[in-house]
Structures are given as structure tokens and as C-alpha cells.
Write a structure and sequence with these properties.
alpha+beta, Aldehyde Oxidoreductase, domain 4, elongated
Length: about 350
Amino acid sequence: EIAGVEKLRGDQQARVSRRERTLLGIGMACYVEMCGFGPFESAVVRVEPGGSVEAFTGTSAHGQGHETTFAQIIADHLGVPFDRIVVRHGDTLNTPMGNGTGGSRSLAVGGSAILGATLKVQDKARKIAATMLEAAAADVVYTEGTYHVKGMPAKALTIADIAAKAYAEGLPEGMEYGLEATEFFRPPQLVYPFGAHVAVVEIDRETGRVNVRDFVSVDDCGVRISPTLVAGQVHGGIAQGIAQALLEEVVYSADGQLVTGSLMDYAIPHPEDLPSFKTDQTVTPTPFNPMGAKGIGEAATIGSTPAIVNAVVDALKTFGVKHLDMPLKPERVWGALKGAK
């Protein structure tokens, strides 16, 4: 519906009837991915005396934006300003034992560990706040970034107020000084993001060149903590999938020498090779982690490649073409058209 497939089919038939030079193809692909691998992930969340936070994670970001997403989780559940949170990773000197990044697991598993540690800190902060407010811990609530007795928001405390007390004299007997917690989250099973992609391509009969005219994706990765980062992951995944379908190829010479060993020879898409993507979502929270989040890092690469290939084959179906091997470079498409003729 979003892609307007019914209207596109009419345009496709009209082009064939008029024997136009440019063919139109529509390809669809649905995917289900398994991700969120264990066996566990770790996190440490520490509130410093001044109210800033340092968090340590066993996952290791290399561009996905873990620092942003994990800081959002902490800010939402502790009342710490976002810009006063530092997320550290990848340093074996100070990070807890973890299982790293891979298989779209970092938010579903690593983020769950961050959340677990954060809620432990919140619980202790409520207990310290209770002593400061001369109330029972069960009566202290965390709402809208502050800690106060139920029904008495005028006498609220900030996390900075509580942190100062956590490292000072006067804590109740038996309560440890400091304000930090460690969590190891073990996922009970995998999670399964899914989606559907539609690609629209135009093919020049005379040259075999494929132009991606439109691309629509609808992805379900559960609850989206940072929609902007999700959009970035989807856009990057679609671009990578299109590149795999149309351009990328490891080529060896007759004597076994790699001839696509640098970006001078290994084809990747330029901005003008890609359309503006249309993205949408459904949200099906998973019950297997406390955030309801599923992976998104690889999802768009799974749906986009077959959608592009299906679109090219769809455009060539009137010529009897039922299959083409990737990458669908112009010479391969042109050869299929020539062979069909």
C-alpha cells in the first residue's frame, strides 16, 4: 500500500505494451531475523558524587550509537541530564566481562543489562532519599526526573542531591556508601525482528543499467529507544543491500590474484545511485527483555538485497528471464536480455 504496487503494475504493463526502452520492475521481500544472542551481557552504572554518571558496557560500539541509546535509558530512569552521562566500552582495564557486539544483540541484551543496573541504582537512590526526607522507602517514588514522597512533589530531590549524600556521612547503618550497581543480563531466548521491503527499478534495454527508482521498507524491531538511530541503521542497511545486489563483487584474475582489493576497483554505490528511502514501522514488543526491544543493525540488509533482485527479475520476466546471479551489473542484465531475444 505504501509503495503503491497496484498503480506500478499498471505502469509496468503499459511500458511493455508500448515497447518502451525503459523497463519497470517491482520486487518484494519479507524477512524474519533471529538475534539477541547470549549467553549474557554486562553493565556497570555509577553515579559520581557530583551527580554525573559513568556507565560501562561489555558491548563495543563501532558506529551504531550505543553511547546515545544507553545514555537515554539511564537518563530516563535516574533523572540525570543526558549530557552528564558518559558511556565507556572497549577498554579491558575498566569494562566488565562481556560478549561484545554482533548479531544485532547490543540493545536487546546489552541495553537490558544497562537498564537492570540503572534500576538497581534507582532503588538505592530511593532508599537514600527516604532517609533525607524522613520517610519510609516504600513511600518514595521517582517521577519526572525527581525523587519525592508520594503526593508531595514540592519537596523533591534530584539525583545530584542524593549522590552527594551517598558519598557523605550519615547513611543508615548497614547501607553501603556510594551509588553504583552491576548487572549481568542473560536473555531467555532469541528475539525475532521482521519486516517487508519493496524495491522499484528501471532497466535500460540497450545498456542493461539498473536504476533504483524507489525503495520502501517497513521494519519491526520492537520498541525503538532512539528512532533517529534506528532510521540511520535502516538507511545504511538498505544502501548496503542494494550495493550487494547490484555492484559488490570479489573478482580474481585467471592466475588467482585479487583484482578488487581496494575501493578503486571494488564497486560501492555513490549517493546518486540511491533514491530517497521511504520507511515505516510496526511495533511488536518482545516479551523476552524488559524494554521490548529487538535488533535492527542487520535487518535492512536482509530484506533489501532480495527485493532488488526480485525487482530486476520482475522487469525481465516478459523476456523469459527467471533467475540472475548477483551482482546484477549492466553487462549481466544486458546479456540476459540479449540471450532472451
